[in-house]
Amino acid sequence: AYRTAFVYVRQLALKVRQALATKAPKDVGDVLCWRFLNAARAWAAALSRRGNAADDRLGELVFPLCQVLFGAIELAQAPRYAPFRMHCAKALHGLAATAEVYVPTTKCLLATLRESLAASKGLPPPEKGAAKKKQLVDYDGFAHYVDLGDGRDGHCRVELAREVVDALLDYLEVVKYSAAAPELAIVPSVALKALAKEKKCHPKLRAAATAAAATFEAAADDAAKKRATIGAAPKDVVAFEPLLPKGAKPARDRLATRVHVREARRKRLRGLVP
Asked: What is the pLDDT of residues 226-254, one digit of tens each?
């Protein structure tokens, strides 16, 4: 299993390295496509299920696969590839939770939030009556998007931003019992509050950002109180979740529960949307 996984992860890495080196449209296109993304997500899921136990060599491939995904994100800097970046970030969250390592994903997610706000300026408030169908609605999300293609209007980007807020909360779920949780929550919390204060921010996005910022702040405060009881500086703590309450589920199970609940909600809402 290790040999097979190593060969395929290496093939993905070679494609990313070639694209980063040449920046040729064909090489970049070989990375920013469903074929590459599905392969990367499949191996991320496989490694996430196996874990990172000392006797499991597959865990050794978590780091190179994370590097592959970060390289792909680097190639997807154009605003139209925001969904691609989000897919990569979600795969990284799964790897981080299972391997019990810190993987920084906030940079690409917060960049998507900034892009969505720039594109949504000038959006009219939610309409009523005949124009009701133009309002933002929850549907199947961006699970079927690699890039936005023709869906570049402000409404589409605001809907994507709401999904990115959910991805940021996934990130919080992974790190909230870390010794560094108060520091890790600062940048997302500040960015979300700034987004909510923008006058031209869509009301639904403002509500989502406000709630998420409050969640980040509450988690940071709780972690700061618990950290004061462990009697060690954050840099001296080796355990991934030293602040985990007794009887609480580990990050891997908590993240899986979040994803399951979110997908179930989307399925219910999709049945309500004509």
From this structure: 998 888 777 788 889 999 999 999 999 99
